[in-house]
Amino acid sequence: SGPSLSTRRGTLAGVNTIATFLASLNETTARSLLGETESQRAEVRSWNAIRARELDPLLQHAPSHGNAGDLVSDDVRRFLFKVDSHLVSRVVLAATPAVSVADLLLFGSLHGVVSALSHAERVTFCSVSRWFDYVQSLCERQGSAVAAQF
Fold first, then answer.
1. Minimal CA–CA distance to 115: which of 128, 100, 99?
2. Helix, strand, or coil here: 110?
3. Which of 47, 85, 121, 131 is the most exposed place for a label (fewest CB within 10 A)?
């Protein structure tokens, strides 16, 4: 049925709702992850909706194991073409100054897919590959910084 989060105000359901709630708990984080302007926030919401509507249903029906090529269906490849075209002249999905919630959620959804791509497919989806590597490197650096504090 999907993830849920219990809060003092009630239960939140769905990845987009929970991620937006968590990002909004701190004003600085909210501006960074959700967008500084209404236009940026709308684009973040739009990409979250596109991921939830177009990609997530495809991934729910994908085999969870087997030949790597079998994990990436033609429908998922069509979605990758769409994202790749969008990222040709961008570093991140939305017109935000940095990685947004939309980038993080799409990264999470696509992690297994991009990992299963052959070298030739990574070249074909070069903008997605560049974006994926960028988001992954940010996550690794942030994870190292957080770990160093403990």
1. 128
2. helix
3. 85
Rg of the Cα atoms in the chain:
16
- Position 62 scores a pLDDT of 64
CA distance 124 to 3: 33
pTM attached to this predicted model: 0.83
Lookup: tokens for 114: 């991009």
Report the amino acid identity of residue 117.
Answer: L
In the numeric block, which tokens belong to residue 60? 């729910």
Residue type, position 121, single letter? E
Nearest to 105 by CA among 48, 54, 57, 44: 48
Residue 63, both tokens: 């085999």
Q: What is the pLDDT of residues 27-47, one digit of tens each?
A: 888 888 899 999 999 999 999
